[in-house]
Amino acid sequence: MTKSLIISGATGYFGAIACDFFASNGWTVIRAMRRENANIFFDLNSPESIANMRISDKVDLFIHAAAANKESCLAHPYRSIAQNILGTKAALDFCVANRIEHFVYLSTLNVFGHPEGHIHELSSPFPEDDYGISHLQAEEYVRIYTNQGKIKGMVIRPSTFIGVPQDMIAFNRWSLVPFSFCRQAVMFGEIVLETSGLQQRNFVSVFDICKVINHSFSRMQDFPLLHVYGPDTLTIREVAELVQAVMDRGFKKRIRLVIPDGTNNEKVLYFQSLFLKDIYQPTGTVEEHMVDLSKIIVS
């Protein structure tokens, strides 16, 4: 029997890729978003309308990927905090009312603020901004509803996303690494770093996150909180150098790197999971992402 799911934020970066992944893996995908062509109109600014909505279709899973990003939290903190916290509670109430048993909340590593050392699911969060604390409070709602037996909930904290956007024209996160580096290389022939680039980041493919959700669906109750990370942990400078190498090998285009002098004052972080190996081990690499993204930008 075909399984069905709702993905909120279906036109967002994660949501659009997730819709394509689950549809290609045999799921019936119901897109929840603010656009007129939505299967379900879903507006985080109207949480009561979300909570009071009723649907006739049987749905097996709700992936809540709609949220205010870090930039929105800085620019519009009160609205963004409400979207992240009240929007999540409304999505949970929607699931309870419509008997949707499984719920996945896409959170963020930012619930830890600026951590150092080994961080895993049992580590204590310590958010330091509105973005981090609003996601942590949303996580708490998922935990409460799960503990009360209303849903089978799973909170996913991913590392830095990689993956080619489904809609390159609508994509608006070009300031993020590694997207900004690919764009700079193709358009300007150089990559300019704002820092010395010695800080490290782990990168995980959006497709790998979707595979984790797909693999864990039947035993989601065993993994109420899950860190998801990829095979590549690189410094920002190494990412820039990788883009430079990809452009040279694949496109015969020589890219100049502009890197200011400096030392790395950022704390070393080892983002880990106690449970991920029991579900699925992500395989998508930064280099694969660079090649695919650069091809599209060049064309």
List its salient traits.
299 residues, alpha/beta, Rossmann fold, UDP-galactose 4-epimerase, domain 1, 7-stranded parallel β-sheet
Average pLDDT taken over every residue = 94
Low-confidence stretches: none
Strand composition percent: 15-25%
Helix and strand run: EHEEHEHHEEHEEHEEHEEHEEH
**Share of helix among residues?**
25-40%
Main beta sheet: 7 strands, parallel
Q: Reading side by side through the largest sheet, how are the strands ordered? A: 3-2-1-4-5-7-11
Number of domains: 2
| H/I helix tally | 9
> So, CATH architecture of the largest domain?
3-Layer(aba) Sandwich
Fourth CATH level, the homologous superfamily of the largest domain: NAD(P)-binding Rossmann-like Domain
CATH class of the largest domain: Alpha Beta
Computed structural class: alpha/beta
Question: How would you summarize this macromolecular structure in one to three sentences?
Answer:
With 299 residues, the chain is of the alpha/beta class. The protein has helices at residues 13-24, 47-51, 70-75, 77-97, 130-147, 179-188, 206-216, 236-251, 286-298, and strands at 4-8, 28-33, 40-41, 61-64, 102-106, 117-119, 152-158, 160-162, 190-192, 200-205, 225-228, 232-235, 256-258, 269-271. It contains 9 helices and 14 strands.
Structural features, described:
- Helix content is 37%, strand content 19%.
- A 7-stranded parallel β-sheet has the order 3-2-1-4-5-7-11, sandwiched between helices. The protein has a 3-stranded mixed β-sheet with strand order 8-10-12.
- It folds into 2 domains: 4-162 and 204-228, Rossmann fold, CATH 3.40.50; 179-200 and 232-270 and 283-298, Alpha-Beta Complex (UDP-galactose 4-epimerase, domain 1), CATH 3.90.25.
- By secondary structure, the chain is α/β, with parallel strands linked by helices.
- The chain contains 9 helices and 14 strands.
- It starts with a strand and ends with a helix.
- The chain is globular.
